Amino acid sequence: MELYDPNENAEDLEDLEDSEDSDTGSGLFDDLDPVIAREQNPSQPLKSAGSQPRKKVRAMLDPWELARYFVSVHASSLREITLTGSTPTLAFWETLARDCSMILESLTLITPRIEQRAETAFWMSIAMRTSQVHPLLELLKNSPNLESLGLRLSRKNIVCVLETLALVARFGLYPSVSSLPSSSTPVRHTTTMSTEKAWTPFHSMSIDCDGITDQQLSALLRFTTRVINVFACDTGFGDEAMQVMHERSHFMTVREMNLDRCPNVTSKMVNTLLVSCPALEALSAEIFYVVDMAQDGSQPWACLNMRELCLNIDLFDPCQEHIESADNDVLEEEGSESDKEVNEAEEARKSMEALQVAERQRLIIAQLAQLRKLKVLYASRGSMDYRRSGPRECVDFILEKGLDQLAGLTQLEEIYFSGWDRPPRLPEAEWMLKHWKQLKVVHRGRYTVYFDKWGHDLKTMFTAPEGFYNNQEAFDVFP
Fold first, then answer.
1. Would 431 be classed as within a structural domain?
2. FRET partner for 163 with CA separation of 20 to 30 A, picked from 5, 299, 352, 422?
3. Region Disordered: which residues (predicted)?
């Protein structure tokens, strides 16, 4: 069930009514009108739907009353509920808590256009520790099958985030009120809720709130018994959250992680996830240096069930390389070596670098070759501007450098290698067509994505000039 901004829908009720007036069959409003009328005036006898004008009843109807009635009628089948728009009324939450708690599996609240004052008041009303518990809390607490709760706030307002965490504290996820993040608005503490140590059914955490910190995320992870999905884009996910995932054995259960645009996530963290999470099936992060894998003893990846791997891969750590390059420049300026000695040193450096590139290329290809269930591979080089970094940092998907080792990825459907300086060659195209029978999407270059959903020959795509598919004439190739 998805409900979109009921306030906006209310403006369209009259148009909806006009189209319904001509209907001869029964509709949602046929039995709704007399029920609402009776609720608003209990002394009035219940009349049939046709005994009063629809427009009059519709004008009396609050949009959330309509939603509340819909929930009441369909409560036995509502397992996933998404609310988009203004915050629901107290009566609506009461109806959900009364009728849907036993079968509800997923609840998502999205507030894209709500005013900041209204949003803050909503979270405050939930987090307040009064004698009467908010019905949303009752719903969440008494829903044995609830596995996913999404709270997507529109405002970049840390107060709202803190109040959301205060909501979680009602379930005992924090051991005491002193563990709560500090807030300008104090929250009174009652001991009746502090005896609950974990929210057992919870295993999916979706955080889409700017400003949430690594400490706050680690608090949520610490008092969750079993985590399967972690979607923490644009958050402060970092060392502390990683440590809690290790201590709480979440590494053993997590299946999907999205850490895009998390500035505290490092390449070493990503490597730790790859070697420590056997159940991991989907991982997205914006940074991965193969050199970190080599320095960690080249441990084999544990995530052999991986279906979707999205990483910006560099063979080297750009920061380290820039430091070493600067040091070499200083030595050349300060030294008194002859031109011959300088040339010999440069040749030795290039030779050593070539060996390092070959070894790291071998390492990453060997690890990728083990992911035989992989369907989507995003191996772009994005941590540096490819025009400055040169071709040596990226993974080369060519036959001379180990592409044939990936023949076992027979389920591969999409492959992206943006930032690849080398022009695609026909031998690689023919090899992919032969070994990756499920391949549907190929991305080469920086911008152009080629779709093969009609089953046409990918060789044409590989040999086309750069930017060809940005033009209308490209579609003449595939009638």
1. yes
2. 5
3. 1-34
